[in-house]
Amino acid sequence: MEPSSKVGNKIIFVTAKIEEAEKIAERIIKEKLAACANIIEKVKSIYWWKNKIEKDNEALIIFKTNYRKISILINKIKEIHSYEVPEVVVVDIETGNNDYLKWIAEVLA
User: Fold this and answer.
1) Which CATH number fits domain 4-108: 3.30.70.120, 3.30.950.30, 3.30.160.20, 3.40.50.970?
2) What single-letter DSSP state applies at residue 4?
3) CA–CA distance, 8 with 58 (Å, rounded to integer)
4) What are the E-state strand segments in 9-106?
5) Which of 4, 15, 53, 63 has the greatest CB tally within 10 Å of its CB?
6) How many CB atoms within 10 Å of residue 96?
7) Contact 25, 74 (CB under 8 A)
């Protein structure tokens, strides 16, 4: 049996400037690298960057995709994102509405 990181559906978290989140999401969806994107605006991010604490108002983009699209999706985000080191975090979807999970697979087939 393969490890779960190599099979199944995934959730990808990406933070971005509020004004660029929709552009990133639309590009990823248009290229069928994810089946769905949700954008949550006004996320307050506090983080270390270049030896100091930064605070920004950002948007959080939540993508739903599958394991076959992960590498291409990460590379595309790095290519189009304005940040020097964009956040791209992948989480396995352990379980959920089977109809929804099948829909993700159908969209990305």
Assistant:
1) 3.30.70.120
2) G
3) 29
4) 9-17, 36-49, 52-66, 89-92
5) 63
6) 12
7) no
Instruction: Summarize pLDDT for 7-30 with one digit per residue, the tens.
Output: 689 999 999 999 999 999 999 999
Q: Is the dihedral of CA 101, 12, 67, 78 positive or negative?
A: positive
Please name the amino acid found at residue 20: E
Six-digit token pair at 10? 């995934």
> Rounded to an integer, what distance in angstroms lies between the CA atom of residue 100 and that of residue 98?
5
Cα–Cα dist 70/83, whole Å: 19
Q: Which two tokens stand for residue 92?
A: 């396995």
Distance separating alpha carbons of residues 46 and 93, to the nearest angstrom: 26
Phi, psi of 2 (to 5 degrees): -75, 150
| pTM (predicted TM-score) | 0.91
